[in-house]
UniProtKB/TrEMBL annotation:
PROSITE patterns: PYRIDINE_REDOX_1. GO terms for molecular function: flavin adenine dinucleotide binding; glutathione-disulfide reductase (NADPH) activity; NADP binding. GO terms for cellular component: cytosol. Its EC number is 1.8.1.7. Residues 339-447 form the Pyridine nucleotide-disulphide oxidoreductase dimerisation domain. Residues 7-319 form the FAD/NAD(P)-binding domain. This is Glutathione reductase. Belongs to the class-I pyridine nucleotide-disulfide oxidoreductase family. GO terms for biological process: cell redox homeostasis; cellular response to oxidative stress; glutathione metabolic process. FAD binds at K52, D304. InterPro entries: FAD/NAD-bd_sf, FAD/NAD-binding_dom, FAD/NAD-linked_Rdtase_dimer_sf, GSHR, GSHR/TRXR-like, Pyr_nuc-diS_OxRdtase, Pyr_nucl-diS_OxRdtase_dimer, Pyr_OxRdtase_I_AS. NAD(+) binds at G176, G177, G178, Y179, I180, A181, V182, E183, G263.
């Protein structure tokens, strides 16, 4: 590898690229990383980290409302959007600096400019320089997609811009039914906006367990978030008092911001991959094998740019596995099964494993355990929200193959459930575990009788 300028050139300074660069550097590789915007990528700069901070902010409205039932007298709260955004930006700046320090400590040279692939072993920088590398890793992530066939789409924003609005919009229309749309609906509503979700499908959060989907729709409707399904946005017009969003049913929604959360596409445009011979799929994702190697043996790709499982922890694990495989001489294939995930709506969803529909199709017999209840906190606060928990069990082996939660701290519980499912825990293991009382999580080990038994025909 000494005939090349570096052993590894990483394009993209997000979670996957940074992890790969750091681990490769730890193995003694000469590593260079190029990032044209800011270190941290989508997750840190304009994704899961700032989103979670805004989710926290939006939930204080519930805390203020609940406090009265516990004896607190709270003056009418006043929310200030610019303060939240300024404090969020300070935290993002701190995290970006931390990423830079991490790379420096691993002896990774960071290039603050755009880089494109210029051949199997060559990268071209924006300033015209060319760098040769024994291996190239593409970790450029994904990018929000805006439909081109909607009149006035230039008036819309995506999640990228939502983090940097000058003011909190009074009325927001969000187009989409995935987790980004659902999470921002909860954020804006919790902070005081009037929110409408417009989705062309039959129901939001397609791919999640149907009971959780229905439970969240009920909770959002009770909160006052309007959800319009089987409906499309056909046009956007800017008027004197804001925007007017035209719908496929002929109605008009006046709003201050129209946000599109209709999916993200792999960020591979004009990256030189096709010219270098790298095979892409129909969505522009880099096709890779189990070890993240592309159709060109010296070029690899990890994270959302491969469109496998588009989650930050997955990109990190893929980046780590790549470095172990190529520079640690310890081949590691990322296991994409049983990955815990969460939707940070309010109430939030936590899930790992198969949905009921998937489990019923995969196993001859599935036992469904399900419970719904008001949390202990809700008894004094007067809140009408309920918590739902669901376990799906293989009726033959007794192994738990799916776990789904709707309610407070669902994501935290899903992380721990992920360990259990990965270890192959059975329903008997759950039953033999002593409950922690009083807690919501104890319901996971106290459900004794299945609510349904599904037999595959």
């Amino acid at each position: 590898m000494t005939s090349f300028d570096v052993d590894l050139f990483v394009i993209g300074g997000g979670s996957g690229g940074v992890r790969a660069a750091r681990i490769a550097g730890g193995y003694g590789a000469r590593v260079m990383l190029a990032e044209e915007f800011r270190l941290g990528g989508t997750c840190v700069i304009r994704g899961c980290v700032p989103k979670k901070l805004l989710v926290y902010a939006s939930r204080f409205a519930d805390e203020f409302a609940d406090a009265k039932g516990f004896g607190w007298t709270v003056p009418a709260p006043i929310f200030d959007w610019p303060t939240l955004i300024a404090n969020k930006d300070k935290e993002i700046d701190r995290l970006e600096r931390a990423y830079g320090t991490t790379l420096a400590n691993a002896n990774v040279e960071v290039i603050r400019q755009r880089a494109v692939v210029d051949g199997p072993h060559t990268v071209r920088l924006a300033d015209g320089r060319r760098v040769t590398a024994a291996h190239i890793l593409v970790a450029t992530g994904g990018w929000p997609q805006l439909p081109a066939d909607i009149s006035g789409i230039e008036h819309a924003i995506t999640s990228n811009e939502a983090f940097y609005l000058d003011a909190l919009p009074k009325r927001v229309v969000i187009n989409g039914g995935g987790y980004i749309a659902v999470e921002f609906a909860g954020i804006f509503h919790g902070l005081g906006s009037e929110v409408t979700i417009v989705y062309r499908g039959d129901g939001i959060l397609r791919g999640f367990d149907d009971d959780l989907r229905a439970g969240l729709v009920e909770a959002y409707s009770r909160r006052g978030i309007r959800i319009l399904t089987r409906t499309r946005i056909t046009g956007i017009v800017r008027g004197a008092s804001g925007l007017e969003v035209a719908l496929s049913d002929g109605s008009i929604l006046p709003c201050d911001k129209a946000m599109f959360a209709t999916g993200r596409i792999p960020h591979t445009g004009n990256l030189g991959l096709e010219t270098a011979g790298v095979e892409l799929d129909g969505r522009g994702a880099v096709k890779v094998d189990a070890f993240s190697r592309s159709s060109i043996p010296s070029i690899y790709a990890v994270g959302d740019v491969t469109d496998r499982v588009n989650l930050t922890p997955v990109a990190i694990r893929e980046g780590h596995a790549f470095a172990d495989t190529v520079f640690g001489k310890h081949p590691v294939a990322m296991d994409h099964r049983l990955i815990p995930s969460a939707v940070f709506s309010t109430p939030e969803l936590g899930t790992v494993g198969l949905t009921e529909t998937q489990a019923a199709a995969a196993y001859p017999v599935i036992d469904v355990y399900k419970t719904s209840f008001r949390t202990m906190k809700a008894t004094l606060s007067g809140s009408a929200e309920r918590m739902m928990m669901k376990l799906l069990v293989d009726g033959v082996s007794d192994r738990v193959v799916g776990a789904h939660i709707l309610g407070p701290d669902a994501g935290e519980m899903a992380q721990l459930l992920g360990v259990l499912l990965k270890a192959g825990a059975t329903k008997r293991d759950f039953d033999q575990t002593c409950a922690l009382h009083p807690s919501a999580a104890e319901e996971l080990v106290t459900m004794r009788k299945p609510t349904a038994r599904l037999m595959r025909s």
